Amino acid sequence: MARRPLPRILSNGSDRIVRGRKLARSAADSATDVLHPLITITRGLRRLAAAGRLRWAGTPRDRRGPLLFLLTSIVLVVALLPFGPLLAALTLMAAAAWHGRDRTPSRPAGPDEAQTKRLESLYEALVPYFSVPEDPAPLFTHGGQWAKAFVSYAFDGTGRISQLTIRYPAYFTDGEAASRARIEQLLHTKSGRGREYRFEWDEEGNQLTVTALPPLPVDIAAQRFVTAPGETVLGFTDPAGVQRTLPVIAGGERRDVPPVVWRTGVRSTEPHLLAVGGPGSGTTTLLRSIALQVLQHGDVLIVEGGGTGEFACLTGRAGVLAVECDLTGALAGLEWAAHETERRLIAMNRARQAGQSPPDDTLRPLWLLLDRPTVLGQLAAAEGRRDPQSLLQVPLRHGRTAGVTVAVAEQFDGMESLIDPVRQHTRARVVLGPASAAQLEAVLGTRPPTTPTPDMPAGRGYARLGTGPMHRLQVPAAPDPYDEATSESHRQAVLSLLPERTAPADPEPADAPTEDRTVLTKGTKGTKVVAEG
Ligand SMILES: Nc1ncnc2c1ncn2[C@@H]1O[C@H](COP(=O)(O)OP(=O)(O)OP(=O)(O)O)[C@@H](O)[C@H]1O
Which CA distances in Å does 40 have to 43, 101, 226, 409? Predict the structure, then answer.
């Protein structure tokens, strides 16, 4: 079929509009140029008149008469003088032009002396890295022109560099991590320590942009985040890193902040999470924050290897299947979870084959949250029992289809003891607290594009979902409400998110032998499932 041409208004209408706009803009510019003296004089006359009015208002009433007399006499004398009115008009215009001039101080065209010194010293420091003796026209040379190499720069209020774009020679080995690291280290040192910097290497354009980053907000506590089912907020990051913001209440006011959102479920490419950190870095808090969010739509089974009771606030709450702190309980709970994953898979498969939608009791998300499982693994090895991690294989492999999500928190020293399936299937990764470049690379797969933060608050770190970009991360504060050190506002924030109690906090008699213990867990349809310990 022959293609009908577009109506003229659609095919070249936008061209005309653009041309019209350009014409209007240039006409306005020319008019402003021509009328500029007139505008200045009018502004000056207005200012003079305002000054006169002020002066008149400030003159005491008894002096106004003589003043008026004086002014009238001057006017009369000027009017009688030859060329008097003309000279008076010219003087008035000159005075108006002087007072009407634009008084906004013009911004300095370039950096001031101290800033120039900083740029010069930075340039000199870069010379050995960005030059070779064979280069006939080096961009970087001792005593050379820094203005040619520094495409753009900005300084903050304290006179330190806040943004800098550097042009570098094409032969610089910007593809090598070691070469980049040397430059980043140097710029970090020379631009002022005590801040975080982001480095963006434009390998095609041979340009490096360094930006000083503001600290991430630490005043956001656990709360109901506006997310869709299947979305979990891991924390908050830089505005440039993500394309969305979330409204949160922080410090008593509402703010929009950019979140790191982790999507789980059938379509997720990162269906399970591994969070690693040093002692006290906040990985337990991250798991608690996740639990508080997912309990809105799903059930949670918690295994706490550290045995410090940091999830006690969740015990006996609706949707919390169990909080297991010992080896026997953990084995029983995880065995049940493995069977439950298989049950869901089989039920879904049968329904699919019968051409029906998946049964209701396979739809409620099930979350397995494991805090330091390797501690229990060591206990199991000592007692000659099964490592609880081995029971995670089925949920890790089939969890995405079956609606089962695994989140593991571990410390760096326990990383070696994590079994392969845990490493392979936990593609959502978080590192919290101080970590070496090698540790970050081991967990996140690559080094972060930012320098380490000098001040590392609890819950601060990095997140990376699969092979996506790396984000700076600040986990919302979700501390243990039963911890005495927890502030009242944080305690209330966490307590308000806890589901209602469905069972007493500690249903077992304290002297019950652990070996005979029976773990009662709530089935997905509210039925009781009994797993033998
Ligand atoms: N995101 C956060 N915001 C504010 N405080 C936090 C945050 N994360 C952790 N904290 C505080 O830091 C301390 C340690 O946190 P947490 O217990 O979660 O660390 P951890 O990594 O589990 O360490 P450990 O296993 O040694 O207990 C707690 O007092 C906790 O309240």
Answer: 5, 6, 54, 69
Q: Is 475 in the pocket of ligand 1 (CB under 6 A)?
A: yes
Tell me, in angstroms, the distance from the centre of ligand 1 to residue 491's CA.
Answer: 14
Question: Which pLDDT band holds residue 500 (cuts at 50, 70, 90)?
Answer: very high
Strands 161-167 and 150-155: antiparallel
**Same domain membership, residue 265 and residue 124:** no
Are residue 267 and residue 349 in the same domain, yes or no?
yes
Q: Is 277 labelled a binding residue?
A: yes
Q: Higher pLDDT residue, 100 or 145?
A: 145
280 lines ligand 1 (CB under 6 A): yes
Reported ipTM: the value is 0.97
Task: Report pLDDT for 526.
Answer: 36
**Cα(39) to centroid of ligand 1, in Å?**
64
Structural domain contains residue 281: yes
Report pLDDT digits (tens) over 231-279: 999 999 999 889 899 999 998 899 999 999 999 988 899 999 999 999 9
Q: Is residue 24 part of a domain?
A: no
* 303 closest CA partner among 366, 371, 367: 371
**What's the total number of domains in the chain?**
2
Q: Which atom of ligand 1 is nearest to the CA of 280?
A: 23
The Cα 169–Cα 148 span in angstroms is 12
Residues 207 and 235 in one domain: no
Whether residue 305 is annotated as binding a ligand: the answer is no
Give me 479's structure tokens. Answer: 């501390």
Q: Do residue 487 and residue 393 come from a single domain?
A: yes
Q: Provide the percentage of residues in the chain whose pLDDT is more than 90.
A: 62
User: Is beta strand 320-324 parallel, antiparallel or unpaired with respect to 299-304?
Assistant: parallel
Q: What is the number of the ligand 1 atom nearest to the C-alpha of 306?
A: 25
Question: How far, rounded to the nearest angstrom, does the alpha carbon of residue 398 sit from its chain's CA centroid?
Answer: 31
For residues 305-320, give the mean pLDDT.
94
Distance CA(310)–CA(288), nearest Å, equals 9
CB contact at 8 A, 446 and 314: no
The Cα-based distances of 314 to 283, 320, 321, 501 in angstroms read 17, 7, 10, 9
Tell me the two tokens of residue 81. 């003088």
The token duo for 163 is: 């943004």
Q: How many angstroms separate the alpha carbon of residue 402 from the centre of ligand 1?
A: 31
Beta strand 161-167 pairing with 207-213:
antiparallel
Show the domain range for 185: 113-213
418: tokens are: 């994590």
CB count within 10 Å of CB 6 equals: 10
Amino acid letter for position 233: V
* Two structure tokens written together for 202: 């434009």
Residues 107, 51 contacting (CB under 8 angstroms): no
Specify whether 353 is located in the same domain as 435.
yes
When pLDDT is cut at 50, 70 and 90, the band that residue 285 belongs to is very high
379 with 478, same domain: the answer is: yes
Q: How far is the CA of 381 from the centre of ligand 1 (A)?
A: 28
For residues 252-290, one letter each, b for 16 or more C-beta atoms within 10 angstroms of the residue's C-beta and e for the rest, the string is eeeeebbbbbbbbeeebebbbbbbbbbeebbbbbbbbbb
Same domain, 370 and 519: yes
